[in-house]
């Protein structure tokens, strides 16, 4: 049997999945949760510590514990790790290139845990930093999880995909796995990014998960890194 704090962590997560506490909302105090789950306050604290380490919950000194949200500035772009060499902040803009529905390929079906007869929403967009094309983005998400999503809605949200998933569809992205490798620009990517065909690019393939480790978005970013680098933190 799992340790008691792991059981409490699972029960808190179940409450998040059922939207008992939504993104940005505070959760009950440790004392209230201890009473609710009939455990000690220390057990609840350890469970919350784990969830905070996973960035599922956020502690705020003197205010309580809150469900993380992509509406917060420091959370919105936490999966975007491309940084200008000097470290200065840049203005990020998005241009929607295409929005289509398609059948899942074998590769994407396996990644998202769906079958090949499933319909996906396929989005292609260009990300610019201070007006300069930097990332060609390919996104695949299950249509069944995003009913009502249109190209107009993507444009309306100014390309803030994770914020839109959360506010419009109740889907909170919590963590992601990435595969990174060097590739050469093909005809399409070179044209879109304004570079020569065959130029080096950084390929970042990402699989993002919501609660219960459910994969919900596959994404491939082709990045120009002449004046930028990929920054990450290791634990």
Q: How does this structure look, described?
A:
The protein is α+β, with helices and mostly antiparallel strands and 235 residues long. The protein has two domains: 4-67, Arc Repressor Mutant, subunit A, CATH 1.10.10; 76-230, Chorismate lyase (3-Layer(aba) Sandwich), CATH 3.40.1410.10. Helices cover 29% and strands 34% of the residues. It has helices at residues 4-17, 30-37, 41-53, 73-76, 106-112, 151-156, 161-169, 187-193, and strands at residues 57-60, 64-67, 82-84, 92-103, 119-129, 132-142, 175-184, 200-210, 214-223, 228-230. Helix 1 (4-17) packs across helix 3 (41-53). The protein is globular, with a radius of gyration of 20 Å.
Give a short synopsis of this structure.
With 235 residues, the chain is α+β, with helices and mostly antiparallel strands.
List the helices and strands and how they pair.
Blueprint: H1 4-17, H2 30-37, H3 41-53, E1 57-60, E2 64-67, H4 73-76, E3 82-84, E4 92-103, H5 106-112, E5 119-129, E6 132-142, H6 151-156, H7 161-169, E7 175-184, H8 187-193, E8 200-210, E9 214-223, E10 228-230
Antiparallel strand pairs: 1-2, 3-10, 4-5, 5-6, 6-9, 7-8, 8-9
Helix pairs in contact: 1-3, 2-3
Inertia-based shape: globular
List the total number of helices: 8
Average pLDDT reading: 87
SS class: alpha+beta
Under the CATH scheme, the architecture of the largest domain is 3-Layer(aba) Sandwich
Q: What distance separates the N and C termini? A: 27 Å
Order of strands across the main sheet: 4-5-6-9-8-7
| Element order: H for helix, E for strand | HHHEEHEEHEEHHEHEEE
Which stretches of 5+ consecutive residues score pLDDT under 50? none
Instruction: Could you tell me the CATH topology label of the largest domain.
Output: Chorismate lyase
**Radius of gyration (Å):** 20 Å
The CATH homologous superfamily of the largest domain corresponds to Chorismate lyase-like
**Strand elements, count:** 10
Q: How many individual domains?
A: 2
Largest sheet: 6 strands, antiparallel
- Can you tell me the CATH class of the largest domain? Alpha Beta
Helix content: 25-40%
């Amino acid at each position: 049997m799992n340790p008691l704090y792991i059981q409490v962590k699972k029960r808190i997560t179940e409450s998040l999945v059922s939207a008992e506490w939504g993104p940005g909302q505070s959760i009950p105090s440790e004392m209230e949760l201890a009473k609710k789950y009939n455990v000690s306050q220390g057990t609840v604290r350890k469970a919350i510590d784990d969830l905070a380490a996973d960035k599922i919950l956020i502690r705020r000194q003197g205010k309580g514990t809150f469900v993380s949200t992509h509406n917060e500035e420091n959370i919105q772009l936490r999966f975007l790790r491309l940084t200008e060499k000097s470290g200065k902040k840049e203005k990020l803009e998005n241009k929607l290139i295409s929005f289509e529905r398609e059948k899942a390929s074998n590769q994407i079906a396996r990644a998202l845990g769906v079958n090949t007869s499933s319909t996906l929403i396929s989005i292609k967009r260009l990300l610019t930093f201070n007006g300069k094309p930097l990332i060609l983005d390919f996104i695949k998400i299950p249509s069944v999880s995003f009913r009502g999503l249109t190209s107009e809605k993507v444009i309306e949200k100014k390309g803030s995909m994770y914020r839109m998933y959360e506010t419009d569809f109740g889907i909170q992205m919590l963590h992601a796995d990435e595969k990174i490798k060097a590739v050469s620009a093909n005809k399409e990517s070179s044209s879109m990014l304004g570079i020569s065909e065959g130029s080096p690019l950084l390929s970042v393939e990402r699989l993002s998960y919501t609660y219960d480790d459910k994969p919900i978005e596959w994404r491939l970013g082709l990045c120009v890194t002449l004046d930028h680098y990929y920054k990450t933190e290791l634990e």
